[in-house]
């Protein structure tokens, strides 16, 4: 028995993806079913909405000078992370079901890495927003004095960390040299990595909730017990409104991703006994939907963002009329100028 165990713990890189699925008892579909077509069809439709909606947010922040502040640059980067998530899920949809057995290990790792990168980028962006808001709220300002250089360093840093974390399972922390450590949800991943990954993200969620709670308490205190000048009170109310919007983004993210992370944690701790595969796809769908929630929140909560969305859509709809859209002042307005025909 010891000899057999040591044999399994030697590195054999000749095994294909199907071998690992069979090893953990995870079934790969061999024929297409109606369920497969429905899942992939709906999944691709959601991905298209995610990509277009977050692209709209990024364009809005770029076009409207009223959004040219650190907090909106970070929210734009969050939209970029959600757009990346949409692309990652497109890749997942096109490499699932019976297609899974045709994947090489490199392709399978890339499929997982894209999802990992998108999650890490979203978490890192929320942390960056928390840092920016905490720095700003101390003085009850709407926008921080953080320089563009620091914002760019934050953005580059979030993506650098995300890419590194996405590459960890394929490079140094998988189960190819220890088959007993293979996950049931992601058969080539190490269960120990899943425990580390899930605990790290869940702890990060708790830290962010604590930071935002502290900011809210501080803002409420300042509004109640400090200056009663109308301009400062109005500025404070704007700060609160923006904080509520960001908190809704954080809340939606935590609600959508926590079930999946709990499943990964249970899989890492219990293995096959966790029956994680039963809930895997359900949790994946919830996580995918999170990427299209943020644009909806911005539309409902931010009047200027809503006006900018309308302006962009107005311009797109009227391009066939050979006109130009006009930017008015620091903001935008849906003003359309008809070009005279030559």
From TrEMBL:
Segments traversing the membrane: 37-62, 69-89, 109-131, 151-173, 193-221, 242-266
G-protein coupled receptors family 1 profile domain: residues covered: 53-298
Sorted UniProt keywords: Cell membrane, G-protein coupled receptor, Membrane, Receptor, Transducer, Transmembrane, Transmembrane helix
GO cellular component labels: plasma membrane
Principal location class: membrane
Pfam entry (one): 7tm_1
Top-level lineage group: Eukaryota
Keyword Cytoplasm appears in the UniProt entry: no
GO molecular function, one term: melanocortin receptor activity
Keyword Kinase: no
Membrane topology field: Multi-pass membrane protein
Family: Belongs to the G-protein coupled receptor 1 family.
The protein's name: G-protein coupled receptors family 1 profile domain-containing protein
Naturally occurring in which organism (per UniProt): Mola mola
């Amino acid at each position: 028995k010891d000899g057999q165990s040591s044999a399994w713990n030697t590195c054999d890189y000749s095994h294909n993806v199907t071998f690992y699925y069979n090893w953990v008892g995870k079934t790969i579909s061999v024929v297409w079913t109606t369920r497969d077509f429905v899942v992939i069809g709906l999944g691709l439709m959601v991905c298209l909405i995610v990509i277009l909606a977050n692209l709209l947010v990024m364009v809005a922040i770029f076009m409207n000078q009223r959004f040219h502040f650190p907090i909106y640059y970070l929210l734009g980067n969050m939209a970029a992370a959600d757009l990346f998530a949409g692309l990652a899920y497109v890749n997942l949809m096109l490499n699932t079901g019976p297609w899974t057995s045709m994947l090489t290990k490199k392709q399978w790792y890339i499929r997982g890495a894209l999802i990992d990168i998108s999650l890490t980028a979203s978490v890192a962006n929320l942390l960056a927003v928390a840092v920016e808001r905490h720095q700003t709220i101390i003085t009850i300002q709407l926008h921080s004095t953080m320089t563009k250089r620091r914002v760019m360093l934050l953005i580059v840093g979030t993506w650098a960390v995300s890419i590194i974390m996405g590459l960890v399972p394929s490079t140094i922390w998988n189960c190819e040299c220890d088959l007993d450590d293979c996950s049931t949800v992601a058969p080539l991943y190490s269960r120990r990595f899943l425990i580390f990954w899930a605990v790290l993200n869940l702890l990060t969620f708790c830290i962010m909730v604590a930071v935002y709670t502290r900011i809210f308490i501080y803002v409420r205190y300042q509004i109640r017990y400090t200056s009663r000048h109308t301009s400062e009170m109005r500025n404070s109310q704007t700060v609160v409104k923006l904080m509520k919007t960001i908190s809704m983004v954080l809340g939606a993210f935590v609600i959508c991703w926590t079930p999946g992370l709990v499943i990964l944690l249970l899989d890492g701790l219990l293995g096959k006994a966790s029956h994680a595969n039963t809930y895997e796809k359900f949790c994946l769908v919830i996580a995918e939907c999170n990427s299209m929630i943020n644009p909806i929140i911005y539309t409902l909560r931010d009047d200027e963002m809503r006006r900018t969305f309308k302006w962009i859509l107005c311009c797109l709809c009227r391009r066939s009329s050979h006109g130009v859209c006009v930017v008015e002042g620091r903001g935008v307005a849906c003003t359309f100028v008809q070009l005279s025909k030559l």
